[in-house]
UniProtKB/TrEMBL annotation:
It holds the Pfam family DDE_1. This is DDE-1 domain-containing protein. It comes from Fusarium oxysporum (Fusarium vascular wilt). Residues 29-79 form the DDE-1 domain. GO terms for molecular function: nucleic acid binding. The lineage of its organism: Eukaryota, Fungi, Dikarya, Ascomycota, Pezizomycotina.
Length: 80
């Protein structure tokens, strides 16, 4: 759902359609932090995605993305 050029980082799910993952244009550069954790006991915490923004934009997600990924947390910070 986010990207930096052809060979850059892409955030998205390829499980819905393994032949395509949406990528933004090469000029779109933003800071996005992703926090994932698996404890020493093997317990995984739900992922947290932090966008650099003043608010969450609805167009950043497919309408059903969060519904298909229960437990994911999405927030924003002016620092990313």
């Amino acid at each position: 759902m986010e990207g930096q050029g052809i060979n850059g980082l892409v955030i998205g799910s390829s499980q819905e359609n393994p032949n395509t993952v949406p990528v933004k244009t090469i000029n779109a550069r933003t800071w996005t932090s992703i926090v994932e954790c698996i404890s020493a006991l093997g317990v995984a915490l739900n992922p947290l995605v932090i966008f650099k923004a003043k608010s969450i934009q609805e167009q950043w997600f497919k309408k059903d993305f969060l519904a298909k990924h229960p437990g994911w947390h999405v927030t924003f910070s002016e620092n990313g």
